[in-house]
Amino acid sequence: MTGDHQTLALLLFSVVIAVTLGITTWVSRNRHGSAEEFYAGGRLFSPMENGFAIAGDYMSAASFLGISGLIALFGYDGLLYSVGFLVAWLLVLFLVAELVRNCGRFTLADVVAARMKERPVRIASGTSSVTVSVLYLVAQMVGAGSLVALLLGRTGAAAQAWTVIGVGALMVIYVSLGGMRATTWIQIVKAVLLLGGTVVLTVLVLMRFHGDFDQLLLTAAERSGHGSAFLAPGLKYGGDWTARLDFISLGLALVLGTAGLPHILSRFYTVPTARAARRSVVWSIGLIGGFYLMTIVLGFGAAAIVGPEAVRTSNAAGNTAVPLLALDLGGGTDSTWGTVLFAIVAAIAFATILAVVAGITLASSASVAHDLYASLRRRRAEPYSEVAVARTAAVGIGALAIGLGLLARDLNVAFLVGLAFAVAASANLPVLLYSLFWRGFTTRGAVWAVYGGLVPALALVVLSPVVSGSPESLFPDVDFQYFPLQNPGLVSIPLGFVAGWLGTVTSAEPPDEAKHAEIEVRSLTGAGAV
Amino acid sequence: MQSSNGHPRGGEGGPESPDENHERIAPDHAGAPTVLPYDDPWYDELASGWGESDAGRLPAGSVPQARQEREDGARAMADVYLEVQRSAAFQEVRSRYRRFVVPAVAAFFAWYVAYVVTATTAPGFMAQPVAGAVNVAMLAGLGQFLTTFLLTWAYARHARLRRDRAALELRWDTQELTRGLGGGRS
Which positions, given as ranges, span the membrane (chain A) (predicted)? Predict the structure, then answer.
């Protein structure tokens, strides 16, 4: 890649940073500093705005570049990922969005604490929410570092480190100064940019093949060197039974994890009613579904136009497939349009990363301030304002994410994302569903459900080949690998549900009928919703 | 309050009618103070200025009389929710919701798991060509997208036509009943 690309890309990166900082300043010009405003943006976003913001929160650079790259390299197996990411939204729409909007105020723990003894369940859900957020955040930071370094042609460790630090500093500024309102507008702008860029590229790919999708698939299969096997599952996850079980585990984590992601749940509080929450999910399903359909075209397009060999040469994981495709579609390396398209795609990917990390940081600072700080501070101590704690927490989480992001620099991004989803599905989903739908659920059940999913999920990762025992693992020199799968979901998600059930049936305290009646009436009617 | 527009308000005239309940409970507690803080997150929404001025949340129960009234208010509130939960109107809303959601979740989850398991365990079957370059796997994958869109549309339509109006009425009814009990929600 020549200097032209990088100059233009850097220029556009600066524009992205300037625009997002401008948004932050603009929306925070007359803020009041209330918790309602900081965590929920005043709850006055329209369903369409929130739908775009949810889509913006969800469509990370891992999907834009990662999934299309996987399709370009492995064909159909990349597509399996995107199906899981989309189908997960049905669970959110049917069981979670409206009910959570009606019952909670800012966080997941609000919903659970409404029925149970507040302190233990807040500490439990707060801990698991922060854990999930930090894992997801580290994944995005690692992705940002390698991606930006790659797009700018600087693969050195220093460039990567500075990118991680820069992204971390920016996200702390957005969140602690702008709160939910700035974060939401950044998500909306980013979603529009990302969808616009994807539409343009998709149209260009289809024009190249005169609108013939069949021809596109045939060309991709032919150039891949795998023939028709490229269009069927098995190239990446085909191997032995461990690899297959691993993929089933990942698929389960993807479809069940979305409903437990704290930064997705907190988005439902930014609209005034449950009906608006439902309509925003409908919007976001349309946008996300359309987006993943287009990434399929882009992935096969990259295989057909750029070719898997060129993609693999540039980046072994396939992350640069789409930028290379843009370069080619614009007219090649030396053409003006090729340079422009490449720089635009790079800037969109950068904006995507900034927006996603801002959303997660906000959600985790809400968990720290609203759940953990409020429960753990000494009763007699002078209480600091919750919003001030949340702003400080954003700085702390930013620093933590930068540190971990630098440590985990060489881990695979897709793996980290899958891990965050697995922990969310194991620790957050069981307690949420039990609280909303199970009459006999008790405080002990809630606490056990959280820890019973969280601890096994994390323990299984530590014992997995990711951490030790294989040449690619984090500590290749030692071997304490006792669990064969990389993704713990297949075991830890059922464990979370079983632990919640076990805790409930063994608890001495009888379930509170009145509280259950209250949560049921409130969740379905919206009576007394904030 | 919204007009009922013909949805079945089965509770009317029955012993569990929300309106009767209102008559029975409200006079006892109508005069209860409405700004007392509650530990429960639902109840402190009007404790004004939380956030910047958390100090507004006085240590609960510092005044014995206030605690007594608070407990009475909470008990009355619980009674209201139990009554509403048992009312036929609410049972109807709940069963409409469950009749759609339970089969829909079961169906999409089974379809998705079947898809993932087939893709990983029977790639030969998935590779069978159907037309041109399109094979079973491609059809199944696009089918997942299609069913997701269809179920989304069906759910939104069902909720809009069969649930929203009844739920809104129940919301106002319930808020009427709980007005002045504890949280001061009005």
Answer: 6-27, 52-73, 79-100, 121-139, 159-177, 189-209, 247-269, 281-306, 337-363, 384-407, 413-434, 446-467, 487-505
